[in-house]
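Notes to self after the call with IL:
- keep both proteins in one doc
- input above output, always
- annotate only the second one for now

Protein 1:
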Amino acid sequence: MISLTELIAALFPPTSSKTPTPEQLAILRHPSGPAWVLAGPGSGKTEVLALFALRLMYVGHEPFQKEPVAPHSILITTFTEKAAKNLEDRIGRYRAILVAAYPTLGVIDTSELKVGTLHALCNDILQEHRAASYQNVRLMDAFEQAMFVYEHLSAVKSDDPADVALWSAFDYLFIPRDWQPSYQNLPSKWLRTTALVKLFNRIAEDRVDVAAMYKADGHWRRIADLYDEYRQHLKNNHRCDFSELQSHFLSFLKTPLGTSFLKGTPGARGGIKWVLVDEYQDTNLVQEAIYFEMAGHHHHNLVVVGDDDQAMYRFRGGSVECMVTFDDACRVYLNMAPAQVGKFPLAGNFRSHPRIVDFFNEYITAFPSMNQPGARVSGKKAMTANSGIVGDYAAVGILEGKTIADAAGKFASAVADLVKHSIVKDPSQCCLLLNSTKESPRNAGPYVEALRQAGLKVYNPRNKAFLQQEEVQGFLGALLAMLDPSGQHIPTSNDLSQFIVDCRATYAALAGAHPKLGDYIQKCVKNIAAHKDQFVDTSLQEIAYLVLSCPPFDQWHSDPVRRVRLARLTALLESYASMPVLGNLNVQRGRMKVDDQAPYAIVAGWVRTFYHLFFGYLARSGMDEVGDDEVICPPGYVPVMTIHQAKGLEFPFVFVGHLSEKPTVGDAHNLESQMAAFPGNPHRVFQLAQPEVRAELDRIRQFYVAYSRAQYALILVGTKTHVANATGNAVPCGPKKGWLSQRLINL
């Protein structure tokens, strides 16, 4: 073991350009018990997490730590798998330095750290300990969960007119053009499926009291019935979804086997002694309960790191209130007074020019709603500029135009000038952030067109709906040309049939331009016909990869945008193909049989199911573009990103558009309000503001994240009307008319 001073000296010698700040060192000296780390943007929270883990494993003979902690007794959760990998890599790099300086430390195996997303760790631990409720269980992703609900739930399988009352109570889960209570019929089966998935996930994540739901009667009793039906189907079919996985794990922790995992076994491995949580602002109530249950056995050693001002995932079930009221959670779960909770601000910003820091500090506190009790962690310190970036220049400014096209032209000219004069080394150092990057006239279209006219390449993987992409439709059409050559099984549903027709047409165009593709598909059709009344030797997922080896798909692998989309599509196909057939758990859907009747194609039942399930899901699930974790802009391109994509990233020059965005009450706000009537833990009931207020807070946080991505310059882009905030309720421009234009320089 070594001292903390020795650890810091080895990792940050005098020649190093950085060293832990007093704020960071205070966290590293935290002795035990819960710690509340309020890490603002650019404050080095990943660094602190890595150093804290190293301190636990290597440091001893200190007032705050007598003996090192075994790596297997430390559990660290991150929000994404990418973040977990980055944290492990950083710990690994630092370990190598420490072992080089102190070879005896080499016996400590840091690979035994439990690092990952909470979902991944729950799954691994339940399997490792052979939890009774998780024996031989198949964990479903979101795609398979939707398939499962579609095929099993009575409210989807049957068209009971009595359910109109149920769906009318949750009409906000539907887009008005898709379904409204005034319609004479029920929502479509896929619309019902999507709504039920949202409801079931929210019930699990919010730890809703289902028994209390039953007593409420009416539509609440119906939802409680359906939720119990869903859970019974999961049990009967040995399935679990990601939300239920957390409930399984929480229940496991309270069993004798779970207690043994937490406390350890005498003479064997020790239990969990420290729990570290990253991005705690996006935690939900069932996750909160898990963390406190794990921390309840060894001195309450729970360290949570996050920033309530950067909470952006309410729409995915996150409850920023868990972060804001962490001290109250310690009182409820651990019987500890707020004064006993270590509260550590990380308020030094190592990313941005001082004027950028001043701007986003003023922005987040300018709104009256942000200053209401419960909106933010009380007593938060303002961020301070520690980046070392200096210079008396307009680090924060505005590009105004009479129209969006005019503003977009000025934006593209600015980027071109930065590249031309070598102010940036590569176009990828200039990023445009928008609320939506669809290339339509109201969204990214004018900006992307202006960049291209300026001779700049654009990286915009979300440039239009996923299913409208040429490579997506062409790939799906190629599969259909093989599996249903004549198109005789195409469903009659207008929206679904049109999507299928579009896919087949896109394939036909590609096959005409690339004869090798068409020749290969025809060869496969003939091969299938030669095996009448037999199972096809090649599975669906294998066929998919063979198609991808044909032109133009093989050439598109070099395109970073197309490659990501095709990878996502093949992952969905693999998931579908590996799913068991309804009623036969031993047969996978990817196994296909040839009909015994001419024209000897794949049997009609298989093809129809493929259309209704796989294509039905794609067409009606609102398939979003590639996930936030997958975006890596290649050199030579200007990245156009959503603000959510940019979370955790930084760029030398950041341009932010969509300044006219207003707060929008969404599904999550309404579900939160309604589910709050049935708290699973009556002692953890949040005093929620009205949905409209929460929507405003969420929009403020979203643009706070956007504004804090910039290193050297933050440039807002919009029309004169947008910047003036004529209506006074366009959140990106501040709390009132003229707020923005009074503070920033017009460039």
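Protein 2 (the one to annotate):
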Amino acid sequence: LQSYVPTACAAFPHEITYIPERIAKLRYKKLTQFNHLPRGGHFAAFEEPKILSDDFWSFVKNLEKSSKA
């Protein structure tokens, strides 16, 4: 199934699986953010909460900017 809602992807270097950006774009038609983050893995929210939350809020701020344009 394809998704047409704004989507962000955080790619962590020690994740169990990795989805390349070009593949993610095939499924997520409004992939607005795809970041390779410096540290973390499958349990990124526990391992690197600051990195993950900063990436999330960056996505939210970009959505807010684009909705006002």
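Annotation: The first strand starts at residue 7 and ends at 11. The radius of gyration is 13 Å.
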